[in-house]
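Worked example (supplementary).
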Amino acid sequence: MINKDSKLILEITDLHARIEDQAILQGVNLRIKAGEIHAIMGRNGSGKSTLSKIIAGHPAYTVTSGEIKYKGENLMNMEPENRSRVGIFLGFQYPVEIPGVSNLEFLRVATNARRQELGEEELDTFDFEDLVQKRLELVQMDPAFLNRSVNEGFSGGEKKRNEILQMALLEPSLSILDETDSGLDIDALRIVAAGINQLAKPNTATLLITHYQRLLNEITPDFVHVMASGRILRTGGSELALDLEKDGYEWVEKINKDKEKV
Amino acid sequence: MDKQNPVQEIVSQPYKYGFVTEIETEKIEKGLNEDVIRLISKKKKEPEFLLNFRLKAFNQWLKMKEPNWAELGYPQINYQDIIYYAAPKASEKKESLNEVDPKLLETFEKLGIPLSEQKRLTNVAVDAVFDSVSIATTYKEKLAEHGVIFCSISEAVNEYPEIIEKYIGTVVPINDNFFASLNSAVFSDGSFVYVPKGVNCPMDLSSYFRINSGDTGQFERTLIIAEEASQVSYLEGCTAPMFDTNTLHAAVVELVALEEASIKYSTVQNWYSGNEDGVGGIYNFVTKRGQCRGKKSKISWSQVETGSAITWKYPSCVLQGEESIGEFYSVALTNNHQKADTGTKMIHVGAKSRSTIVSKGISAGQSANSYRGLVQMGPKAYGARNYSQCDSMLIGDKASANTYPYIRSQQPQSSIEHEASTCRISEEQLFYLQSRGIGFEEAISMMVSGFCRDVFNQLPMEFAAEADKLLALKLEGSVG
Amino acid sequence: MTDSNQWLDSLPAPNGILESVQRRGREALTQTKAPNNSFENWRLTDIRKLENLLTLPVYKKENSIENDFPLKVVRPPSDGIRLILNHNSDPLERVNLPKGLSSLTKLELEQNLGRTNAKCLFQEEWPVALNYASASNLLALKVTGKAPPIELILSSNPNQFNPTRVIFVLEENAELDLLEIAMGSEESAHSHLIEIHLSQESKVQHGMIAIGKKDSHLLCNIAIQQDIRSEYSLTCVQTGWSLARLEPHVVQVNGNAKTNIKGLQLSKKDQQLTTNTQIRFDGPDGMIEQLQKSAATDKSQCIFNGVIEVPRIAQRSNASQLSRNLLLSKKARIDTKPELRIIADDVRCAHGATVSQLKEDELFYLRSRGISSAKAADLLLKGFYQEILSLLPVEADRWDVLNTLLDS
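After joint prediction of all chains, the assembly is encoded as:
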């Protein structure tokens, strides 16, 4: 939903970043306002997943120049946990399995950290269980998963539902969903997409990172960006995604090469 | 040999390199004392520093005890009953191959290592060592054009004494272990390689070791220096005739890789392993070690061990340089009464050093095949990583496979991963292959070579063929 | 080099029910060399600490153990019995054994005393000789049918060498749930030896919680003999000892049994904790699953040696062993040595070992959900411990081991 007067949530300016000695982002510019849904598309290795991790503050990447502002505040020196507390959420492409750590306890500690930031009261075990039960319905997840270790032994679909469950609990202002559609069958994809749609509000922003059109059949983006070689090459409306689906990524690369020639 | 087990039979092929070359040999008296060492040194016209090196090592050795921790259980060796120097008569190194005794050339040709200019292997320079001396080195001139020195260590001692003095005994100190000390005292010949700064050695270098005399110990010594940003690939092969006595082979190999240098060292070891009842064969007690001294240097060991009555060998890497890399790829095949205790040590000293260990042990007959390794992360090895994989395959129910991976870490910012498994060739697998029209033998051979694939892929092209041939030798033959 | 002679001299004259064992142990100690670092099994042991251990006398002290022990805090198990073991008195005094448990008769004791030790090749071991030489009391029980859970408190007095010895014989089809609690006192040494004989189709769930205090030492040998179709599960947790050696040896005498060993050790300060396990299949179709975890902080050291022996007779054995280690400080050390000795060809054996610190991607995942890095590390550690703790018998919850581990 585009509304010219709504507040700017995320503003990325000329972002360059590298991992070890390898440059991955080479000048990314992106502005996302409240209420908007954006999608970044691109081939593997185009830098789109890296961008999501850098917004969330992954320590393996180094920002060499440029900046990321969230609600007007520079994120660069903020710890990952604080980014989460102020309302940035990253749904991982490959959520890690953490043996021995109870999923329920993890969800409760995370939720309370966010609530504390928002000046809300912390939830005790019982109140929290009530809240989780409600949110579970959103992703149609079996409550049995709460008593298992974080993501351990979950199928691909279960892991992604667990991610959306976390999103529902943390109620972020900015949700970045990295390849949330990968590894999902069509039913699971619909459930996850419905969850994302329900959680998108006029005061929140959503950034979808995806390789394929199929997620965008379920969630209609306001803007589509095409990424290659660490840059956003083109931006358009949802029809751009359809063009990509039809013509593939080759024409994007051609543009890229032409740009390099110049 | 167990006639009940056809798999067993396939791996028990006769040794094809067991012939003896009839040649007049100059040997010194049996026994070891200071005079013998002085005599060896004199025969080789060595400078004084080397004689002193030998004498110091000898005095160390006298104080040392023969190790027994590997539980190898061999009869006591009488070190006074060994000849410490044997050479084909008139063994002065010849200017041209035409002057080398044709019998020697014939011997190497029979072993598949032709030396003459018409027949010699293209793209591999060969140093051929017969008993205690090097008899010929091919392609020396071509290598010299690139500044690469490749010659016998005896020659190097006289021609490049300053390099030898600078490096010998710095990787494997003379008091390192019982057999290394013995070698340092009496070593006869071996190969020397020096690759200057920035040079990528234009061809693979190879040494071929042949033990011919039955009562002679073989104590070769190899030293390879790779200067900054240079690269070299070195191969060694070994065979010996069949004798019903045991022959001692105690070699020392020292590798030094400076900044960004890379040394790849490959071995195909096929010493005579004794007969079916475990009589005779070589005792192969070898100390091989490389130091990655410089930043981003790399040493890679690959070995195919199929021979010897007893093998006791742990090619190791001391990873001193930051971001240096150590690798160890090994296939050890034991049969009959062979015993192999082999593995590696990866000593991580430098930050971000990395090591990989892949070991495949195949035991058949009543043989014992052990992997013994150490991975150590020192206090400064920040960000270092190791990955080890040790797999064993057992053929028949009388062979044994043991795994002893020692792991020690003193650096929290490092990671070590070790995996090991044991398997056998299952009847279902065999049946599956056979039902697709693959012969029994071929099926076995396929599975063994599939099991070893990760290691064979690491061997240089020229050598991979030899390794294939060698395994095929052990695996081919009629099904009983 | 440790010298056991002085310690031997301080022992009272052999007497009581274990008199002949004491003589044998003392004889063995005078004849065998005390451990030093050139013994493969002791190559990493802090010998100085072993020497400290031998300066502690074995003498009868009258104060009851309740003084040193939080028994008042932790109530006895609700549906089982609590037995308190020290070397001064008969643990069965004033105890009415419930159905399923009975004392071994004199004859049964003669038949069984030391039998499992011998099977497990413990006879020659130095810590076992120490126990033989000094233990004057023992708990010897027979289990028939399904016995109620037993909680066994291994008491130790401060400034003293405390030997304890236990034997359990399980009849066919018997089931036992056993939780041993060893809490070291300050400046104490505890020598514990337990033999469990599992007859056909019997089952044992064995928990061992060993928590030391300042300058406490523990030498614990667990000898297990399993007949066919029996199941033995051991879960042991140790922390807080200046020096501890936990040595479970298991022999499946005719194979075809199940063994499960889970261990956790957490070392702090300058502690040195060791677990040495040895499992042998003396018959076909046996199964072992083993997971050993260690975490070392400060200047401490954790050691694990795990031997699995599969002789020729043990065809179709299935063994898996995993050693997972966390190195949590720059000055701490981890040493681990899995060891497989295999002769049988039709077997499935796998082992693995990892040494690392907490995983960065796991930490990041938690932090990206708003959890502080300290809290995230705590959660991960808790998860690391919990995987083993959750396998302790239910009654173990009363001991709140997790908090002991997390308090540092």
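Two points are worth noting when inspecting this output. The domain at 8-261 of chain A is CATH 3.40.50.300 (Rossmann fold). Chain A has one domain: 8-261.
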